[in-house]
Amino acid sequence: MTISTEAAKPLPFSSAVGSLIEATDAIRNFRAIALLALTFIGAVLVGGVLTMLAGGMSSALLAFLGALMAFLVMFYGSNAVGILLMRDAQGQPGMSLVDAVLVSLYTSHRLIAVVFLEFLIVLAAMIAIAIILFVCKIPVLGPVLYAVVFPLSAIVLGVLVFALFYVMLPLAGPAAWSGASVFQIIARLNQIVRTKLVSVILLEVLLFLITAFVALLIFGVLGTGVSLTTGMSAGILSLGEMNMYALAAGLGRGGSGSGYIVAAGLGGGLLMAAAAVVPGLIFTKGVCIIYLDATRNVDFSASEASLNDGLATVKKKAEEARERARALAEQASAPAAPAAAAAPAAAPADSLQCPSCKAPVASDDVFCGDCAHKLK
Q1: Helices (H), ranges, 58-181
Q2: Backbone angles phi, psi at 71, to 5 degrees
Q3: What global pTM score does this model have?
């Protein structure tokens, strides 16, 4: 699935801010609301049930399986929601929930590959800087070199970390949701970092503030309601002290606590999951808007061609190294060269020759019969 990210003209920064505020309209996308709610609730149910079973059976493996299953539900479900919201942000026709989930199952693995490659890039930079710092241990010349290496290393690592956490990781999802392949995502995000790092960071900070404000309102309302409800429930149902710790402990004991405690724990978890739907939708559509603004009318062909050339060069060098290693291995495993041929055997007796005239002589001859040369 490839979706174009081009528009008639690029938006100025002020217009981008206005478009970002419109991310709150994500709560009108009922398909996305339903899918994200199902995702959160499904993750809570899967994780909660398996955690209860693990607590009752004292099984660490079952607890790990529960956490893994909850993560997978969240991962593929949230990516399906991202696909719906990306199409909404682009003005594209919507798709059904089933189609969104199927597309997510088919394409979401790209995000895992991109995140892995991004962390490899940062790790490679840190290893290179560590090698240079070891070089700085040279006496006399080391401190002089370190005076240059220190500020440059600080700049490189700072930019890399900001680019990773404010551009690469947040915008990798929208890039994948728009239909880009793994290497297209890397090339596009790399160009965004080089050309629009500051504006993207400013928009993301604004998005964080908007999302945090909405979440504060929602969880403030729910927190007040939950506090009053638990207080009334403790008095009317004779539950004793009832708080979040008691609810979590009741679930962790595999349901061995009061039935009301277990029911409140599950119900409260579902309530919190449902409450997280609105901030999650706003943030998801917000990053889609930021990505579309950063990629609007940008030609990525040069960046993608450069990345492809670099990959081709690396692949060629790797192939040459593999061929060289194979040749060395074959040379090492080849049998040793045969020993020098043995000296020719002595000529048979009937082929002896006179050293003077080269006439044939017998082994028992004393004189050559032709030239009378003494043989013995």
Answers
A1: 60-90, 97-107, 109-135, 141-163, 169-177
A2: -65, -45
A3: 0.65
CB 366 within 8 A of CB 374: yes
- Map residue 353 onto helix, strand or coil: strand
Q: Got the DSSP string for 171-223?
A: HHHHHHHTT--HHHHHHHHHHHHHHHHHHHHHHHHHHHHHHHHHHHHHHHHHH
Residue 314 has, within 13 A of its CA and on its CB side, a CA count of 6
What angle (nearest 5°) sits at the alpha carbon of residue 112, between those of residues 35 and 7?
Answer: 65
Residue of 206, 207, 209, 184 lying closest to 295 (CA atoms): 184
At 261-298, the pLDDT tens digits run 667 767 777 777 778 888 888 898 989 988 888 888 77
Strand partners, 353: 360
Q: Smallest Cα–Cα separation from 230: which of 246, 216, 250?
A: 246
- CB < 8 Å & 24+ apart, contacts of 253-259: 253/55, 253/56, 254/52, 254/53, 254/54, 254/55, 254/56, 254/57, 255/52, 255/56, 256/56
| Tens-digit pLDDT profile for residues 49-101 | 777 777 777 777 877 888 888 889 989 998 999 999 998 888 888 788 888 99
